[in-house]
Amino acid sequence: MKQKTVLKIAFLCLVLMMTILSFGLINKNSYALDDKEEHTQELVNTTKNTSNEVDDKIRDFLSNADDFAFDDLSLEAKNIILAEPSVVKEDPSLEIKKNASVKGKAKKTTAKKAVQKYETNETSLGIDVSTWQGTIDWKKVKQSGINFAMIRCGFRGMESGKITMDSYFLKNIKGAIANNINVGVYFFSMAKNKKEAEEEAKWVVNLIKDYDISYPVAIDTEIFNKYRLKGVSYSTLTDNAIAFSNYVKSKGYTPMIYSYLRAFNQYFDTAKFSKYRIWLAQYNDEATYKGRYYMWQYTSSGSVPGIKGRVDMDVSYFSVTNDATKRSIVNGVYKPGNLADVVFKDLEMNTVLTKDVNLRISPYTTIPNKAGILEKGTKIKVIGLGEKWVKIQYENNTYYINDVNCFEMKLKEVVFTEVNLTVKVNKVVQVLYKPYDFLFNNEYKKLNIGDEVVIIGTNNEYVKVLIDDKEYYVNDLEFYDILNDNIYHPSS
To answer: Class of 417-482 per CATH?
Structure first.
């Protein structure tokens, strides 16, 4: 019995020891599992934090937007931002969305209301789209009353300068054309010079060559003196837009230039765009641009069936426009306003500029007519002088400068041949205190019809007269009829 008892006790001790050991091993393994779970959770948190960090960076990037908010984007667009942060960072359209107030306060409008308000027999209603609209149901877009779509085909990176195709371009152009929506394209340019602008145009033309482009091919220039365009002059950006447009036109497409009101009024040498169509961005109840424009982007807060979130909406003032096989009817919009005539006194003087000046193709600052800049020291020919304006000839063209003190006054000496003629005035003329006095003095004496005066000198430009024993000058050789016999005929 004692032996059995000892064996039982030994067995129980062994079981107890094994239980204790097992418990220890389980705990040890449990600790290992806990370590793994902690590590795994740490990885999950790190990934989540990384994603949140990217998300936050994009949110921060857009936080100052007046017309764009991350929450307004479709899930698809958010995924694009989070999946391709390096590409997004280079996309210049986000910079514009962040500073959308330059185009005005966006109006919220639906396609139905827009059709009722804007579409007439002379206009067409459309949209412009890019990556940020995600996947579009083009059938629903067509059914809503949209007639055309301007589709972003690509952009040049803000810093890298790399040309990138819009990630939804192929989907968009195929979907729009398949649903009988007229399409045009636009490219967001960050070209530093004409060579780069032509490179962009060639890239676009090669991309669209297999598609039926029935609306214009536009260059989009909205960033000035920032990023890779820091220090690039407005004049150069004007020339870039023209270089892009000329190449597009040479390949049979209709070019168009897109930007916002302030850019057309103050930055571009807009007068040089007279041969090209302007696409105006101004978020307002009525466009106030006083130059000619052919398309108006009136809001970025449009609501169109088939598109998730907001979309830019446009009115065009023409029909399809691509090549000779398509009929093109252009109505355009031109609102110069009631501009008062500017009076000039004729002058002919070769001189030089004493300061840098803006050239304009008409003597007004209230319409987009800037034609470039001339630097101090440039030789010009002054052909007219007004109260506030100078009319000049430069490189066989006539321009206007809003500064009457911008040039050296080089007046030629006035020599007279003495005569003695009593004459009767046959028309009203101004009497000058000295030759060229009309350049400096706006108050003049006048001679009226029937007045008698004595002419004491003449040449091919002026007549010197004696009035109350004082000498005056008349810038007119045919203002009188001779009364005495001492006839003098000015030499030719």
So the answer is: mainly beta
Residue position matching structure tokens 């530093």: 192
Give 487's DSSP letter: -
pLDDT over 50 at 403, yes or no: yes
CB 356 within 8 A of CB 376: yes
The pLDDT of residue 42 is 44
**223 — alpha (psi -120 to 50), left (phi > 0) or beta?**
beta
In angstroms, the Cα distances linking 36 to 23, 33, 47, 229 are: 20, 5, 16, 51
pLDDT at 168 exceeding the cut of 90: yes
- Mean pLDDT to the nearest integer, 287-304: 91
Cite the beta strand spans of 221-333 per DSSP E: 255-260, 277-281, 295-303, 311-316
Fold match flag (345-401 vs 417-482): yes
pLDDT at 330: 60
pLDDT for residue 316:
92
Q: What pLDDT, on the 0 to 100 scale, is given for residue 270? A: 92
The CATH architecture one would assign to domain 70-316 is Alpha-Beta Barrel (3.20)
pLDDT digits (tens, 9 = 90+) for 217-229: 999 999 999 999 9
Amino acid of residue 394: Y
Q: What is the dihedral angle through the alpha carbons of 144, 149, 155, 158, rounded to the nearest 10 degrees? A: -60
Q: Which helix (H) or strand (E) holds 2?
A: helix 2-62
Place of tokens 């003695």: 420
∠ CA 336-342-348, nearest 5°, is 130
d(CA 133, CA 176): 14
Q: What residue spans define the domains of the chain?
A: 70-316, 345-401, 417-482
Provide the angle, in degrees to the nearest 10, between the axes of the packed helices 2-62 and 75-83: 100
Q: Is 476 exposed, middle or buried (0-12, 13-18, 19+ CB in 10 A)?
A: middle
Rounded to whole angstroms, the Cα distance separating 401 from 373 reads: 10
Report which residue type is found at 254: T
Q: Which of 50-64, 202-216, 331-345, 440-454 has the highest mean pLDDT?
A: 202-216
* Residues whose CB falls within 8 Å of the CB of residue 234, separated by 6 or more in sequence, listed in order: 224, 267, 268, 269
Q: Could you please state the CATH topology (level 3) that the domain comprising 345-401 is classified under.
A: SH3 type barrels. (2.30.30)
Q: Per residue in 236-260, pLDDT tens?
A: 999 999 999 999 999 999 999 999 9
Q: Which residue has the higher pLDDT, 370 or 216?
A: 216
Of 170, 154, 168, 150, nearest in space to 254 by CA: 150
Grouping H, G, I as helix, E, B as strand and the rest as coil, residue 457 is strand
Tell me the sheet residues that pair with 263: none
**Mean of the pLDDT values across residues 365-384?**
87
Query: Residue 462 and residue 475: Cα distance in Å, rounded?
Result: 5
